[in-house]
Batch of 2 targets.
Target 1
Amino acid sequence: METNQIIETIGSVTKKEHLHSISYNVLPDTMVLENTNPFPGYGYQVENIPSDLKPRSIFLILRYRYAPEKIARITQSLINQNQLKCYAAYGEIQIRGAIYPCIRVKKLDCFEMIPKVQQYYKQNEIKLMGFKFIDDEGQITIHKVLKIIEISDGIYRDLFDKEKFYIKIDKQLNWKSFDSIGKMVKNNLANNNFDAALGLIYRFNGPEDVVRIYDKNTTLKRALELKKEFFKAVKKEFIMV
């Protein structure tokens, strides 16, 4: 198989994270959430944020669902007109049976930029949800554009964030099965300091089910180790069902 091909495509990533409402540096009566510990080795207390810290991922909660293309076009205009270096994508968050449409924004320079970003979406007819306090676990699905490279058979490196890679799996998983498989893999590895999410990548021949891995060990050896363990766990999970 020919590898090392750069692939630009779309896909989605689903994971569960603890989310907390932000009540500072946001427009009045709007709902903005932040994940308190998105990846291993990164985290802080929401109530005591250092002044020089850059926000990693924030979620602007929307009143209605919108087409991802509409959000993408407004985001492109936002970045071009304001010369911002941020990345935004449409998604949805489920918390205790409620579904919250959202825009996930990453890599803003500072928290003080959040109201400016919110205001731009408002000016472009995107309705923001009113404030609601959340301090709970949520299942987050983000629809995103991917730029990846195949570094081995069924393993893709993320060229936007090189600490992420994607492992192709041969089963369509629901969240319950994926959660069970992820715990199985972590229990079988001495070095289990990685983050896993359930993903989908669109290819010409059809959608590919993947596991998105975040790991500070970016070697191919590590990727192959995790691929082997996930394949074993998927096989075991379906034998047990």
Target 2
Amino acid sequence: MKEAQRLNISKSLALYEEAKTLVPGGVLGARKPTDFIMGEYPIFLEYGKGCRLIDVDGNEYIDFLCGYGPIILGYREEEVDDAVIKQIKEKGFCFSLTQPYQNELAKKLNKLIPSAELSIFLKTGSDATTASIRIARAYTNRIKVMRCGYHGWHDWCVEMKGGIPMKYYEDVFEFQYNNLDSLKNLMAVHGKETAAIIMTPFGHHLHQKMQEPKPGFLEGVRGLADEYGAVLIFDEVRTCFRLRMGGAQELYGVKPDLTVLGKGMANGYAISVVTGKYDVMMAAASKLFISSTFFPNSDGYIAALKTIEILERDKVLDNIWEKGKRFLDKVQKVLDKYDTGAELSGVAPMFFITFETGDAELRRAKRTEFYTQMIRRGFFFTPHHHAYICYRHTEDDLDLTVSAIDESLACVKEKFDK
């Protein structure tokens, strides 16, 4: 199989060199070039529409990263954008007081999310996970936290500890997804001091295969929280409005005390939520301070209300699950065709292709070759993060992607068989 031609990304690279004189490292966080494949992936994008992206050099891609998750419908979704533009032009969106859309959205969440009774609105997933921990600590008058999964960039949970004193995270302990014993052992030691157990109910750890919960795992976590009087928090930033309208808690039938929402709810507009049981949430009314100038901005509320309307009206999640299942079945057949160590994990709306081998260097090399071939063919994935399917991915888009996966794995096979 002939390798695909390297993309021309000269303008992206030039902008990156300029950016390094203006921004520390040029680009920060999960968007920095080293989180992709340096020299192969674009660094700056020009625009997007539907499920397609155009970079500053004019290269076009079918996108599966979806802004790291918020794009559930598609880029520049006209109904959503028009509703927000109308709000901005006719009523405004940033005031000293709250507009009534707060109540409208909170009532909508109460109908959709099994655990929702009261809600607090914020801007980012990190804002919301951190607020949920503060609420749990205030409610229980305890300090310690058991965590499983990625929960943002704030001091208590970020993986890179630079600039953070140890005292800010010394009371936070990590347990393993689908390993109930790891949590049992931690709770046996710290349970009486534990304020919260926070976890992603669907396993999507960075750089690792995705996992659905094993039978009894989520129920076991719920039982341990009840046994020790800890607040159970589901971080459903990625899973709610994607796996189900009510999130993984609806799909798997286990209800937490608090739920964190974000990506997908407003199709790219900045809004996040902590929602949950009345008595736990009421700690926020009297025992702590949660506030920001921009938390009440109504552009996010309007975008969320319109996005949820479309999700319900057009049965968007049914569409994503149906075409996603067909797509993943085809992808699995391609992976079975080539003995490369490629593995498919996840579910129809969110999935990941990883490489398994006993040799870490070989695994990384195969991964790099595969995703290099995919980006050169015009398919935007990342080697280090799972992919998403959005509403605007068509069957033709997905079939083209299957063909590109086939060609890319053929290149991996040929290169590493030699």
